[in-house]
Amino acid sequence: MEPSGYFNFDLTKISDALGISENDTQLYFTDGRRVSFLIERRAVESMPGSRLAPSEGSGFDLIDASEGYWEVRSLTKGGIYFCPSYMVGSGRSFNESGFLDKLNSLKGYFVTDITNFPEMPYWIIPYHLVQKWWFNGQLGRTTKINRTVFFNLIRDS
Questions:
Q1: Over 70: is that where the pLDDT of 90 sits?
Q2: For 87-102, b where at least 16 C-beta lie within 10 A, e where not — what string?
Q3: How far apart are the two ends of the chain, measured CA to CA in Å?
């Protein structure tokens, strides 16, 4: 599967507007924890008729034109995970039934490779493809995969 599209940013303009170096701007925009808020808003523009979830506490990030729920994920140097964010981080643990419940409530994932800032490819991935990867054992035991695995999976889809 080829990228669904690309987000293009002007590094110099952003750096100047923020009053920080281009290097610091690059670091900020390639940190998934920091840039996810902006990527969600760009994703809305890329899915006509979609809108943001009603709150940051919602169990999804976007609602599409047909009221389907989508998760926005960043592909980082460390890879990507497909399980709910409440299962990721210190003191948190993966729960397969929770993951499958979440997966079955979604239409899919909007995945952006933020490591390529200022030009970031993105993929709109339907839930059934992630479901196939899970049941084929291709997502590992916690749904976190590295970049190489992601690109192999997406290439073969």
A1: no
A2: beeeeeebeeeebeeb
A3: 5
How many C-beta atoms surround the C-beta of residue 80 within 10 A? 21
According to DSSP, the β-strands at 69-75 and 108-113 are parallel
Give the Cα separation of 153 and 82 in Å (integer): 13
Tokens of 19: 């009053």
pLDDT of residue 58: 87
Dist. CA 96–CA 101, nearest whole Å = 9
Q: pLDDT per residue over 128-147, tens digit each?
A: 999 999 999 999 889 999 99
Cα separations in angstroms, 63 against 27, 51, 114: 29, 5, 22
What is the rounded average pLDDT for all residues in the chain?
94
**How many Cα neighbours within 13 Å face the side chain of 89?**
5
Alpha-carbon span 53 to 68, nearest angstrom: 11
Q: Which domains does the chain have, with CATH numbers?
A: 5-155 (3.40.210)
Each residue's pLDDT tens digit, 43-89: 999 999 999 999 888 889 999 999 999 999 999 999 999 988 778 77
